[in-house]
Amino acid sequence: MVGRLRNTLSVLAERSRHHRGFLVVLVVAAVLWAIVFQTACIDFVAEGSRPFRASWLGNGQISLFGYTLPYNLEGWADHDYFYISWADQFLSGHLPYADRFEVQEINDWVYYQPYFLPPLFLYVCVLGRVLPIQPFGIGLVLTLFGYLTTFPIYGIAVQLSERNAIGIASSATYLFNPVILYYTVFQWLNPAPFVFFVMLSFYFLIKGSRTAGLLSMVTAAFFKQIALFFALPLIASILVPSKKHNGDSSNFTIKQPDFSSFSRATKISLCYAILLSIPYILNPLSYLGFIFGHIGSVHLSDYSTLPGPNRPITVAVLFILFGAPEGLVQIIDFLQSSSLLLILGVVPVFWSMLRSGELGADNQDYWKHILFLSLLMIFWVHIFSPRGIFKYYTVALIPFVCLLPSNRALSRKSERTLSPFCIINPILFSVLILIPDRNLYIAFLLFALLLYAIFGYRDKWVSLVSGIYYKRNRMKSSIVSTNATLQVPYSSSQFS
Length: 496
Known about the structure:
The chain is mainly alpha-helical. It has helices spanning about 1-20, 20-45, 80-90, 120-130, 135-150, 150-160, 165-175, 180-185, 190-205, 210-220, 230-240, 260-275, 285-295, 315-320, 325-335, 340-355, 365-385, 400-405, 405-410, 420-435, 440-455, 460-485, and strands at about 60-65, 65-70, 105, 110. A hairpin with a 2-residue loop joins β3 and β4 (about 110).
């Protein structure tokens, strides 16, 4: 018994030494997160009354070089207005996905508080509501999910780079990221649980634990519907994996889709989804209607005026901001609200994911490429979603930006070294989301997507341009050669 304990302690000590840099980051981040969380708690109860209590909403201005610059971090009172209300309704005996659940009387006023998420998020709210630290319990649970997300991020980075330094950089830029600190730790908004399970799913898949990865991804989808898009890389890895999962280390590529594994994964997912849906699945039309019907799409009511502060932002808003003709704004609004723009980007990315398995790459390069394509996909989904976005939705982007912060990290033949951009880019990206006006920041998302697409496929772009230039020169040479051949030599004596 003593020998076993000694061996266990020695193994733990060895692992602690191996990951001591990560442990330091965890401790420092825990202190910072605790300070931010405590500040949010004080601010939450300082002003306002139920159900409009909220920590600082992030409006203000700064003076810079003699200029006054306004900023809007776009905070919300969702924690009090929605999350606490939902938990109270459930604890009072009302089930979600019914009209009665969405109406609550508070202080002699009746409020409409629609529940538009899958059931697991409600259970998180209930768990937080019964903790003995009210009214901050839900916020604490959401913050813990946000903190725990750093573990799969670190594991993914180390697994793909084979260097602890890369893992430490990825986890640190996540834990100290301004977007995460504000929306997860300070504002207690809803993305944290689904983001945790998405990253956990990727970690399991990269490690080769397909069933655990599958169940984690389904769990993520039962926190927030947008996680369904992350099922696409999962489907691609099952249908066309990079090599056989039979213990053979050779790069044996699979040319035919593996429908047997896909069928098995589908059955497991459906059984697990039904289990999580009990008892609401007994009324499937109401259940599915509330989950997907409440999302809907956003139409602009005026094609020349910017939407109000409570409306989500779409790409069409940018065109209004820059004074585009109303007809063009109307076309863009239709293309986005009808999901045509969304499909236009997601389908090619999914096709590229399927093609990744046919390239015969090793497991590290394969998953690095899949993560990169997932990053492009989630950028595109956020920018062109028919629902529109708020700033806090970008919490889902941050782990991918921290894992793939630079061109060197994106390269499938990258040198596994730590670049300064691994630190700078994720922080700069967050600042460009937080600080600009809510009508403008989507332009920075578009710009970031463009940079990732250009630098991520830099070699292909260079090859394409070089190929066009080469063909053009060959065509010119061919024309010159043909003209020279067709030219008939003559002298003036021929015409004399």
